[in-house]
Structures are given as C-alpha cells and as structure tokens.
Amino acid sequence: MTAERLYLFDTTLRDGAQTPGIDFSLEDKRHVAAMLDGLGIDYVEGGYPGANPTDTAFFADAPALDARFTAFGMTKRAGRSADNDPGLRALLEADADAVCFVAKSWDYHVRVALATSNEENLEGIAQSVAAACAAGKEVLLDCEHFFDGYKANPDYALACAKAALEAGARWIVLCDTNGGTLPHEISAIVAEVARHVPGERLGIHAHDDTGNAVANSLAAVRAGARQIQGTLNGIGERCGNANLVTLIPTLLLKEEFASRFETGVTDEALAGLTHLSRGFDEILNRAPDRQAPYVGDSAFATKAGIHASAIVKEPETYEHVPPETVGNRRRVMVSDQGGRSNLIAELHRIGLEVDKADTRLDGLLREVKRREAEGYAYEGADASFELLARRALGSVPHFFDVDSFRVMVERRHNAVGDLVTISEATVKVRVDGELLMSVGEGNGPVNALDMALRKDLGRYSPYLSGLELVDFKVRILNGTTAATTRVLVESADETGERWFTVGVSPNIVDASFQALIDSITYKLLKAGAPAGAP
Ligand SMILES: CC(=O)SCCNC(=O)CCNC(=O)[C@H](O)C(C)(C)COP(=O)(O)OP(=O)(O)OC[C@H]1O[C@@H](n2cnc3c(N)ncnc32)[C@H](O)[C@@H]1OP(=O)(O)O
Ligand SMILES: CC(=O)C(=O)O
C-alpha cells in the first residue's frame, strides 16, 4: 500500500504568540522558523503581517525555508471591497508562499462579532480567497469555530468551507477554536464534512481546552483530514494548541499512522526531537515539562522497583517505544519506591558492576530508604547517590575532614551609605592532618560558605578551579516550626558536566553545607584526586 501524504502545519509563531506570557522577538522568530524547517514541517506560519512591528519586519525579510512560509490574517472587513482593505493588502504583499485566512463559520459569530449578514461573510471569504489566489499565493482558510458552528447550523458552516474551496483555496482547515469539542464529535463531523470537501484538502486546528487537542487531531486524520496544525510543546492561546512534539512521534511510530501516512519528518529528525523541544523551552526561558510525552525527562523514567526489575530484563516490558527513537533516554531511578533492580541499573550507569546476590546491596538499599524517609531525594541528586553507593561499596577516597564552620549575616551601611546585607563564612578543614582556615564573603550565606570552602583546600584546590555552583533549590518538607529543609545544589565544571547533590537538615545553612561538601567531593572523585593522609 502506498503511503498517503500527511501535511504538518506549524503555528507556533502565530497562535503560539497568542500564549499568555510568551512574547517572541524578531530573532526568536528567525531561530524558531529555522528549527521547524530542520524538523521537516511543511508549513511555517510566521505571524500576522501588518498586525504588529515584529511580524511586519519578519515578513519584510522572510527567512529562506524549504517549508512554505505562511502569512496569517483575517478575511476582508465587512463593508469594504477586497481592493480597498489595508489589512488584506498587507497580507497579499507579504513575502510569503501561502496565506492562511481566518474566517467566521459559525453564524452566531457572524451576527455578534462581525455584525454582518451570513451572505456578506460568504462573499468576504470568496473575495479574499480569490484575491490571494490571484496574487499567486497558496491559500488556506481557517474556519474559526467550525465544530461549534457545525453543531448550530451545519449548512452554513459547510457553505463557508465550500465558498473558499470554490474560490480556489488549497486547504479548508476545521478549527476547534474554543477547544471544547471531544474526539468522538470530531470524528463524526470530519467524516460528514469529508463527503463535501475532499479529505486531501481538509485540515484540523485543535485547541487543548479539554486536554484533547492531540486526540482530536488524530481523530480528524482517521476521519479523513490530511493536514494537522499545531505548535511546538503545545503552546497557544489559553490552554494551547495540539502539540506537534507529541503528534509527530505518534504519527511516525504508531503502526496505524506510520503504515498509512508519510510526513516530511525523517527518522533522523525524529531522533533530534527531545533536543529540539528542550531547545525551544530555552528560547521561551522556561523549564521543560518533565512529564511531557516522549520528550520529557520522566517519559522513560521509572522509580517503581517492580517495573525496574522487568526493564533491566527487557526494556519493552514498560516502554511503549524505544526512547532513543525520539532522542530521549531511559532512566531507572533510585528512591524509596525502588528495589535492588533499580540500584543495579543505576550502579551500572555509573560504572559499578554488582551482582544481584551481593549482600552489600541490601545495606545500601536500606540506607537509601532510611535517608529518603528523613527527607533526602536521590532521584534528583545523582552525584550524592553515587557517593553514597561508592561509600557502601568501599570506593571513595578520604579527601578531607570538616572541623567546623560558622556563618554570619550582617545588614549595615556601606562606605557610600547604602544599606547592604552581606554574609561571611569561616570554614575549618583538615587536609593531610593540617588544619586550614578560610573566610569567604558572599551575597548570601550559601554563597559565602561556598567561597570559604573552596578558598583553601590545600593540595585539592587546583582540582576545584573550574567548579561552579549553578543552581540552588530549597524545599521545606513539613510546614511546622520544626520543618526539615532539603537543599538541592546543581554544580558544573570546565568539562560541561553538571551534577546534583542534596543535603537535609532542620537548618537551611547546614543542609546547604552538606550538599556543597558532596559537590566538592564528587568533583575530586571524578577528577581522580588521590586520597589524603589520615
Ligand atoms: C481564533 C484566532 O486565534 S484568530 C487570530 C487572533 N489573533 C489576533 O487577533 C492577533 C492579531 N490581531 C491584532 O493585532 C488586531 O486584532 C488587528 C491588527 C488584526 C486588528 O486590530 P483592530 O483593527 O484594532 O480591530 P480589533 O482587534 O479591535 O477587532 C477586530 C475586528 O476585525 C473584525 N474581524 C474579526 N474576524 C474577522 C474576519 N475573519 N473577517 C473580517 N473581519 C473580522 C471584527 O469584527 C472587528 O471589527 P470591528 O473593529 O469593526 O469591531
Ligand atoms: C484560527 C485559530 O487559531 C482558531 O480558530 O483557533
């Protein structure tokens, strides 16, 4: 059976720009368009030329793409001719291969939002589409509120679609604008519409207001649509749009779709999807969703001991697709939910081969569970776990001892009279039997402790020159005055490696200090520093 072509239309830079809290710069738009092109998307909707300076500038210097670069805008205004509508003119003059018009297809909206007649709206659609075709553009019509409109007045919703088709539109895109339609309704309505508009000219644009945008897009394809509109990481107005980062692996990896359709996305591009999705979050300056399907950090992670024991035998037992197909990775985590299989898998990852019958595993597992009950969380603190495990198995050299530390926080006026808060820490450590004392100043107690600790560690200091404290997270574990504090420290070094360490104490400074000590010890271990003299 020859595969049918399924087209992917990306609206990250248009509907995605309508996401609360997201504001693309011109540079962001150029960068994202290139990312989408590299992924193999067929249409990249760049924005709404004429609506704001960024979009106008983007279309004035259009990116060179393999994808069809698409300008979005509304059909001509009621009461104006197509020749005399500045908005329409801006669209037609934009340097774009395609124009995607948004048009009302729910008679209720025609009456209330446009305050015009059903007939005039139909004429507006036909005249706008014809003008764009005459300007040499490929034309798409986004039928706004199509599903709600179809439920209210199917003849009118269909008439809008047909008006565009007859005027030369290549695609009629059925939009679930308010996002309230459910998959079974999408299936039924798309199947009915496909009796009037050929499926290979039908698209779907779904919003996620019931959490069904991806399911609705797949339902529309099963019912005959051949174009899916969506966005990277599902951004978009209100709850977002259909997430292309979820849809693409489903279309390429799930038998029903993979055997029937082909898209412009290659297996190689699919293997870069996790990287692309996280890179896009970087542009948005937000943390990636750990539980995102396929590409999330937790998408192929397991804590449960029963699952881990099967995964180490055969990963397929608990994985619906191999993680590497989307560029993600399997993670078997160590926590209070785990058993010896979790431990063995994690020990293997860090290069420690231990037999399942080794009795030291029981001791290590008991220690992990005891500490987790106290508040430690090793699933997010890989370096602290490695130290704990290597100590249990007897392979961490003794580098230094901490004799004592003291931190002082002072609020005072500085030399120019400004009120400042400074922290000063004093740390005493023993290296090779010698007592060393360092003082550090910082903008907070943890920063000051970090400075003091690293200032003089005797012969270990050269190993620590590239060590950097990248991030610091504090969590209060029970909300009483006797609360326990968990501190997670993220560190990095000159090799680019990042690692996480954890400390727990009723005292936040003490918890931070533990995490810092683990971080330094891990760095010395990984750098191959020799053990100190007792
Ligand atoms: C479902 C969607 O996501 S559609 C996309 C929505 N995205 C956006 O609106 C973002 C970009 N929009 C904008 O920057 C502005 O709204 C502009 C530049 C397009 C228009 O701004 P303004 O001229 O100030 O109009 P305003 O935004 O207040 O109202 C929209 C007007 O377009 C009319 N209109 C809306 N849809 C259509 C349509 N499909 N065809 C014709 N006219 C339309 C409305 O009736 C309203 O007309 P009115 O001013 O006579 O009441
Ligand atoms: C066009 C569009 O974004 C919508 O109808 O949701």
Automatic annotation (TrEMBL):
Pathway: Amino-acid biosynthesis; L-isoleucine biosynthesis; 2-oxobutanoate from pyruvate: step 1/3. Gene3D superfamilies: 1.10.238.260, 3.30.160.270, Aldolase class I (3.20.20.70). The keyword Transferase applies. CDD domains: DRE_TIM_LeuA3. Keywords: Amino-acid biosynthesis, Branched-chain amino acid biosynthesis, Isoleucine biosynthesis, Transferase. GO terms for biological process: isoleucine biosynthetic process; L-leucine biosynthetic process. SMART domains: LeuA_dimer. It catalyses: pyruvate + acetyl-CoA + H2O = (3R)-citramalate + CoA + H(+). GO terms for molecular function: (R)-citramalate synthase activity; 2-isopropylmalate synthase activity. Belongs to the alpha-IPM synthase/homocitrate synthase family. Residues 6-271 form the Pyruvate carboxyltransferase domain. The keyword Transferase applies. This is Citramalate synthase. Its EC number is 2.3.3.21. Pfam families: HCS_D2, HMGL-like, LeuA_dimer.
